[in-house]
Each structure stands twice: as C-alpha cells, then as structure tokens.
Amino acid sequence: MLKEKLANWEQFVQADSDLDPLIRAAVQHYQFEAIHPFVDGNGRTGRILNVLCLVDQGLLDQPILYLSRYIIGHKADYYRLLLEVTSDGAWGPWILYLLDGIEDTCLWTTDKIRSIRELMRHTAQFIQQELPKIYSWELVELLFMQPYCRIANVVNAKLAQRQTASVYLKELAKIGILNEVKSGRESLFVHPKYIELLTGEENVWIYYAGVETTTAIEREAS
Hints:
Elements: H1 2-14, H2 21-35, H3 42-56, H4 68-73, H5 75-88, H6 91-130, H7 137-143, E1 148-149, H8 151-156, H9 162-174, E2 179-183, E3 186-190, H10 192-199, H11 216-221
Helix pairs in contact: 1-2, 2-3, 2-6, 5-6, 6-10
C-alpha cells in the first residue's frame, strides 16, 4: 500500500501538466505528508521536496527558499489545514496557505540577500580603510563564501602563501571582522556579523565604527 501511494505521488510530481507549478507544489506536499512514509523526518523532507519541485519547474535557480521558517511560524494552521484536506477535501485554504508562505519567504529571502550584499560592501570599505595593504575584493569575497575561514582557504584561493595568509586573518581579527577560535590543531576565523545575519530572523546588522557608507535603501530614498 505504501509503495503504491509513493508511486502515485511520484507520477504526479513527474508528469507533464498545465497545472501551475506553485499549486502542484502545494498538492504534492499534502500528498507526501498524508502518505507519511518515514518514522521521523516527514515534515523536513516534505519541505525540502517543495523547494526541489520549484527548482525542477524552473521557478528557482538554487534551492535557497527556506519555507520551513514560515511553516514553523504558522504551525497550528499548517496541521489544521492539512487535516481539513483529508477530512473535508478543503484544498482551497491549504493551497492559499502555502502560496502565502512562498510569497512571504520569497520577500524575506530577497531582503536577506540584499542585506548580505550591503554587509559585504560595508566590510570591504572597512578593510580598505583599516588595512589598505592587505585589502582586495577577492579577499572580501572569500570571507563571504562561508561564515568561517581557515588559513588553507586563503592559500587555496591563491591570495597568499600560508604565512602571509595567517597574517591576513589575524589582522582581520584584530579589527573585529573575524574571531579566532581554536579547533584542534588549527584555527578557525569565524565571521560573527555574517553568522548573525545568516541565522537571525531580522535582516539587519551593526555598522563597523568610523566607516562612511550608505545602504541600498538609503541610496534609493535619497
């Protein structure tokens, strides 16, 4: 029975259809959750499948839509509406719920990306002001590839040899951009402002002192 239901779900997901991709995502999500194929992790898997369906339909270039944020924030409605589809065939409210979630998450994600870009530009200005001898845009880009950096990352990016790379990261730590943390025999240089922005609900960050800069919002308003 379980295999038959999963096969039916798979056929729906992969079949050619004129149905709007967003509505298809809502339908397939309900179907997967109703099947409940795993002992644990069905909700997380179902939310990942939502994003992958949107990628497959060409609505996303990368699977970066964190829909779990919306669903967790509206969990009571989520479970109620899923149950109402099962008990009453109430597809409309469920589909509208997921469409609202996708819209809300898209707007929040777009703002998050804009904030990251602004932080990146501001960080570049701060490094150029405080450490002009080591500044390069390529180094700034490396600091934003992930929320921490190793000496090896600088070396592999061909920005410096190992000893010089160590000096670069320690100098960045001295001016407060990075925090040096011991991890076994090596050091990790974590990027606190970037981590806070990536993990925080609000898409805001605190300026480095003494840098003359404006955000994109401020520029648009002027």
